[in-house]
Amino acid sequence: MSSQLNEEQRSAIHHIDTPLLVLAGAGSGKTRVITYKIAHLVKNRVLLPEHITAVTFTNKASREMKQRVDKLLRGIDTKGLHISTFHTLGLRIIRREKSRLGLRSGFTIYDQQDTLSLIRELLRKDFGGKTDLEDYIRWKISGWKNSSLTAEQVINNSTDTKEYTAAQIFLKYDQCLRTYNAVDFDDLISLPAQLFSRDEQTLSGWQQRIRYLLIDEYQDTNTAQYQLIKLLLGDRKGLTVVGDDDQSVYGWRGAQPENIDLLLEDFPDLRVIKLEQNYRSATNILHIANTLIANNPHKFEKRLWSSIDRGEKIRVLGSRNADHEAQKVVSRILHHRFRTNLPYSDYAILYRGNHQSRPFERVLMEHQIPYKLSGGTSFFERGEVKDIMAYLNLLVNPDNDTAFLRVINTPRRGLGPGAMEKLTGFATERGVSLFSGCYESDIRDHLGKKACIGLSNFCDWINSISERVSRGDSMAAIREMINDIQYRQWLDRQYPDPNIAESRWRNIEELLDWLERLDRKNRQNSLAQQLNHITLMDILDRQTEDDNSNAVNLMTLHAAKGLEFNHVYMVGMEEELLPHRNSIPDSLEEERRLAYVGITRARKSLTFTHAATRRRYGELLACEPSRFLEELPNDYLEREGEQQESAEEKKERGNAHLANLRSILTE
DNA sequence: GACCGTGGCTTTTTT
DNA sequence: AGCCACGGTC
Q: How confident is the model at residue A666 (pLDDT cuts 50, 70, 90)?
């Protein structure tokens, strides 16, 4: 197996005496080092599989890593080997240590939407609804948690009133989560980190369990994650991290590429290995990638080289507008495929924002070309899926007030905002959840008779279903629950268009199918565990289980990280899009890295496209080609459809300029 | 409580 | 342009 590795890769795999940092350029075999290292550790019995934990940042990456390790270790028992995302590792720790964290079994994971609605609720209670604060506060709380800070720690350190308000909400927010028996995404990292730093005994238990830790995409770690890594390692040596500071694109969610420097400071015996040979891209592609990223400042000098041939020139395609851009790209793919007969999965269309996929989806659909869409409005953000998920969460954790409020009057039970206002006040006063509040003996003194009957019917009903769930056949109980509430009929009433109602119902069936499959796969897991699992996953994770491997890949640049494709189309290469308008001028370096990530996904060919006009919020705008295109060496590029502007394009551009002027004048 | 129309907001990236 | 929340009407 080691014959397939170069010298640096081999030494990275065999080095286990001290902590190891692998600085690996794009396409230099980063994941290969981790997977081969795991295989080496297991095969040569350096460690038991159960003592090895490997961590990635996305579900996709972790699934891929699992598959590759399985392949290398075919026939060998890997029981207990843990490969997961950072957040799933956190969940694993929290599940085992829940009693030390003030959580009970059946706890719920709040996603951003849940988080936002809880913050909104708190703001409404305290400030009568200053809605302009909620985004700021959510961002602030998340930032604090990413730095592993608690509300108590930040409340006395706020520099202005706005921050102080956020800190106060933070305190209440965390108290609420504990009452609701819930944690949020950020807690999955910060709670274990905080627990380990205050409880040595628990920590040492986990150090026994995790004796070798491997981290992929290390440049994306935030402060809390680094703290967790450091605590788990202690003064031991079992750590391999692999990263590339040129591919750090998660600064906005707290990633600290400086954590690479911290390793050098914190571990004096750290070994550093650089991987500089690229095995992925044609030399032309690699060259423009190097040229672009050279415009960013660098701490670690890295020179990526490759022995693959030059390949074709890089194409730059101009187009009139987003639809025209999509037509051009799709027709290129069709022609290319006609000549080469490659599978559709060899092609990828990469863009900055999810909304950019729409025109491409339309054109691909028109041509009946199969495509696979990553990201976008997540399955679990859909209202109907949220409804049913809320019901399911309530079954395993009735104290989850956010779920309670979501479903109490959906479908209508005559328990409207008025009654809920009273119930919330009552429950807050008692310091209990809404559900428990309904069972307080004197609730009748605080709410109307009708509301009390409705609530007690509802709670009894939830209890009866949840009893059936815990007795065994959870799927049957769930289906009956959905039948009880007549959800299908509710959808029909909500959406007069039968097609829409039907498609929403299909989403519910898909959710149930998925649950059923999970249930069959992991019989020993409780419904609560399955739900936690699902919250951390995405529908993509089941799509890819299906066979649509012969499909064009559509995804954001962020989602493309860690992947590679033979033929890559980077679309929307325009100012305000890449670099994104909100990143100008402060985060240009990260935007440049994002472009770098996109370019280095390509193996054989790379095509950039940009449009002369684009609609934003229905308004026509003139667009300029991205500055990043200007930074590329012209001799490597082949420009088409942009030098000589056609009459039609001129007209279109003129229209856009007029529209711009008009909007300026009317402002 | 159901059904409609208007108006406001959206689009940065993910666990 | 499209989605959703809100308010008015029945």
A: very low
Residue whose C-alpha is closest to residue A628's, from A268, A144, A292: A292
Compute φ and ψ for A236, nearest 5 degrees: -90, -175
How many C-alpha atoms does A79 have within 13 Å on its Cβ side? 1
Nucleotides of C under 7 A from a protein CB: 1-2, 4
Asked whether residue A617, judged by its CB, lies under 7 Å from any atom of the DNA or RNA strand C, the reply is yes
* Closest-approach nucleotide to residue A537, Cα vs C1': B15
Binned at pLDDT 50, 70 and 90, residue A600 comes out as very high
| Burial label, A279 (beta-carbon count in 10 A; 0-12, 13-18, 19+) | middle
Distance A659 CA to B6 C1' (A): 25
A219: pLDDT strictly greater than 80: yes
Kindly report, residue by residue over A227-245, the tens digit of the pLDDT: 999 999 999 999 999 999 9
Nucleotides of B under 7 A from a protein CB: 1-4, 9-15
d(C-alpha A425, C-alpha A434), whole Å: 9
Q: Which residue has the tokens 């919250």?
A: A535
In whole angstroms, B9 C1' to A132 CA is 13
Q: Is the CB of A338 under 7 A from strand C?
A: no
Spatial distance from the CA of A407 to the C1' of C3 (Å): 21
**What is the pLDDT averaged over residues A520-535?**
85
In whole angstroms, what is the distance from residue A460 CA to residue A457 CA? Answer: 5
Give yes or no for residue A395 having a pLDDT over 50.
Answer: yes
Residue nearest to nucleotide B12 (CA to C1'): A353
Minimum CA–C1' distance nucleotide for A580: B12
Total Cβ atoms within 10 A of residue A308: 18
Cβ A598 vs Cβ A249: under 8 Å: no
> Is residue A395 helix, strand or coil?
helix
Residue with CA nearest B13 C1'?
A558
The strand pairing partners of A570, in sequence order, are: A350, A608
Q: Which residue, among A658, A104, A173, A92, has the nearest Cα to A399 in the 3D structure?
A: A104
Query: What DSSP assignment string belongs to A572-590?
Result: --BTBBTTBGGGTTTTHHH
Instruction: Tell me the C-alpha distance between A150 and A186, whole Å.
Output: 12
- Amino acid, single-letter form, for residue A625: P
pLDDT, tens digit (0-9, with 9 covering 90-100), for A271-301: 999 999 999 999 999 999 999 999 998 877 7
Across A69-180, where does the E strand assignment appear? 82-85, 108-110
Spell out residues with C-beta < 7 A from strand B.
A 57-60, 85-88, 111-112, 185-186, 249, 252-253, 352-355, 374-375, 409, 411-414, 416, 493, 496, 536, 538, 555-556, 558-559, 580-583, 587, 616-618
pTM of the model: 0.86
Distance between the alpha carbon (CA) of A414 and the C1' atom of C10, Å: 19
* Nearest by Cα to A53 from A42, A67, A68: A42
Q: How far apart are CA A199 and CA A194, in angstroms?
A: 9
The two three-digit tokens of residue A335, written as one number? 């022609």
Cβ neighbours of A485 (radius 10 Å): 17
Task: Quote the tokens at residue A127.
Answer: 């400030």
Segment (H or E) for A214? strand A212-215
Mean pLDDT for the stretch of residues A199-216? 95
Which residues of A have a catalytic role annotated?
A: 30-31, 216-217, 247, 601
What is the average pLDDT across A175-200?
A: 93
